[in-house]
Amino acid sequence: MFYFLLGSIFGSFGHVLVSRLTSRENFLTGRSRCDACQQQLAAYDLLPIVSYFILRGKCRHCATLIPKSILLLEIFSGLLLFFSLSCWHSWLIFFWLFTALLLSLEDFWTQQVDLRLLLISQIILLIAYGFTGSIWHLETLGLAVIFLGGLFLVAGRKIGLADLLLLLFWSPLFHMEHWLMLIIVASLSGLLFSRANQPLPFIPFLSFALVITLIIAK
Ligand SMILES: [Zn+2]
Fold this sequence. Notes:
With 218 residues, the protein is an all-alpha fold.
């Protein structure tokens, strides 16, 4: 329960981070405000999950509906931390999945990804992975450079740079066969949901495939 609540706090923070990155606000100095009436929110209105239900999903000042995505992200992040620690005993896995979740949300909302968020979070992930005493799978990284580089040259316009970068960053964390499996699962699940002539936010599918692959690779 404690870890669930802690995870939901991360989720709450993550939602602020992503929504401010997408609206180009300064997330370091800005205080939390209602998106509709711009009233500053008090600390007791910012409790993860709890506040949503106390306020019945509406802003205290203007009664505008609070986006359900906030509640969903908080609950999801809580579950993520709970399962990361109980199944993998690993904060690293939580960080990995949590950043994938935030990037998915951003991709889903805006069809693009803030490269600063991607680069900073994934470099931290790689370094943290090194500190756990695990070795990087350089052979997978080598394959990824060749494979993704070729893909970029052939179809760089059609595939998002962020998708390729994520696959590249994740490659040294996997055995080769697991990394290939990740791509296959992501592509197949993406195909199921693709509509003709509509851009598909692909990071949610990569993240889904990441969960599946981590469970299998365990
Ligand atoms: Zn309001």
